[in-house]
Specification:
Strands 10, 11, 12, 13, 15, 17, 18 and 20 form an 8-stranded mixed beta sheet that branches. Strands 1, 2, 3, 5 and 7 form a 5-stranded mixed beta sheet that branches. Strands 14-22-21-16-19 form a 5-stranded mixed beta sheet, with no helix packed on it. Helix content is 8%, strand content 37%. The chain is built from 5 helices and 31 strands. The longest helix is centred in the N-terminal third of the chain and has 21 residues, at 2-22. Among the domains are: 47-220, Immunoglobulin-like, CATH 2.60.40; 390-536, Immunoglobulin-like (Sandwich), CATH 2.60.40.420. It has helices spanning 2-22, 200-206, 217-220, 466-472, 523-527, and strands at 63-66, 74-87, 96-101, 107-113, 118-124, 152-155, 176-181, 188-194, 209-215, 230-240, 246-247, 266-269, 272-273, 276-279, 283-290, 297-301, 307-312, 315-323, 326-328, 333-339, 347-352, 355-362, 393-405, 411-416, 434-441, 447-451, 456-463, 494-497, 501-508, 514-520, 531-536. The chain is globular, with a radius of gyration of 22 Å. The protein binds CU-O-CU linkage and copper (II) ion (CU) (2 copies). One copper (II) ion is lined by residues 153, 155, 450, 452.
Length: 540
Amino acid sequence: MFISRRRFLQQGGFAGAILASQGLSGASRDTHQTGMVKPTLDPNSLAKFVDPIPDPEIAGSISSRPSPTEPHTQIPYYRLEMRQIQQKIHRDMKPTMLWGFGNSSPGPTIEARSGQGILVEWVNALPREHFLPIDHNLHGAEARLPETRAVVHLHGAKAAPESDGYPESWFTPGRSALCHYSNRQEAATLWYHDHAMGINRLNIYAGLLGLYIIRDSAEDSLNLPAGKYEVPLVICDRLFDGDGQLFYPVSGASNAPWVPEVFGNAILVNGKLLPYLEVEPRQYRFRVLNGSNGRFYCFSLSNGQEFHQIGTDQGLLAGPVPLRKMLLGPGERADLVVDFSSHAGEQIVLQNDAFVVMQFRVGASAHIPINAKVAAVLPVKLRTILKTPESEAVKIRPLSINEYHDLAGNSMLMLLNASYWKMPITEKPELNSTEIWSFINTTDDSHPIHLHLVRFQILDRRRFQIFAYRTAGEVKFTGAAILPDPNEAGWKDTVRADPGMVTRIIVRFEGFLGRYVWHCHILEHEDNEMMRPFEVIAAK
Ligand code: C2O
Ligand code: CU
Ligand code: CU
């Protein structure tokens, strides 16, 4: 039942969500349908490719302050306010109310250099009332707590625990938090987003996200397309009501609005719906982030053209991977190079299966002579990635992924290792030790599993017998181990744990002692117990 319902949701979008929600029942849920269902906006009714894609602005530091770890060094100080804003999503839509950083969603991009720390003061300047449906039954979102709570996490950062944005370290309007990002890590595309306990899915859906790019000299020396030829593409799916305002679907129960997944039919790129980008017939670098709550994308170009993936979550791959289709789960990043040089005058659409995402308009000629420094062809080798040997692991942790249904077969709850958030910490790796985490996915869905603090490598995925596992707790493999896809064979921080598979990653816990979290990056799951703390402890 759940599989087909989910497929249905994915295909039917909003209409599917409403139909499915009417099936909700069970002791804990009130099946009474309350309120009127507002009509949603059909993006197919809008003119396509009438808005140029906005390039998120680059954040500027406002001063410098002593580094918390090296008091004699002054480091840049940034101050970013979370605010309620009005933003034009499409030429023919009224402005939409969003929550952004500064004046936009996505917020300004923070540019950092490897090894050079910065300070960011994250300010909560949001209104006291939330405008999206809070479910007070969820842990950490109880009715006695303030409605508007926020805390910013820098996804992909090797940050000290007090700067990592622990979900319970939220702060209310009028308050702020100062975070130190030492950037002692290699070049990569990171992103910042809200992480407040129990309402994270709503805060990010409202718009609280942005990019954070770390660069280094190794990457510079490759002369990849840069400047105006390097374009970030932050992709988020949303639903809008007839007034062009954000619509977040609810279950049929007015006192328990949580829904297990949200799939929007409007796919925003850098905060615009169906935008276009004028490009020159030459190579471009696109840093793609899937910032959606729950949607997995399978991207391709309408002309069937090949492109190259050069990087993943934690920076460059060993070499460019040629692709015609690219899968990207929530929270994952892909660094792409697309060569438009033999497509002068063409219009090429970036699509996700049946959905149109955006359009590239290739000009007749390169306006600016191609910089001699920019390699006309991609370097064959981008970086050395040493495989972490399995023999280095001092611990292997089997971690199950579980889903629970109500009497009608609707998904009510998903857990990691059958444990709730509040249960004692079970994952306590020692600092500088290597472990293998083995995600045993007993559900019918793919869950993008993310660990804070660390980068890891994917070892393999292997099909197993779910029934034998559920009944006897025994992993019986039914297929051979499958190596990660070539475009996943680099440093990752988020991994697809596919249904009916055991997905193994190898992780070295470096950097800091202290408490962090690991979770599913489908935000509806994360908010409803699919998140657990872990603690890096001192070696014994
Ligand atoms: Cu992008 Cu804990 O998250
Ligand atoms: Cu993270
Ligand atoms: Cu999940």
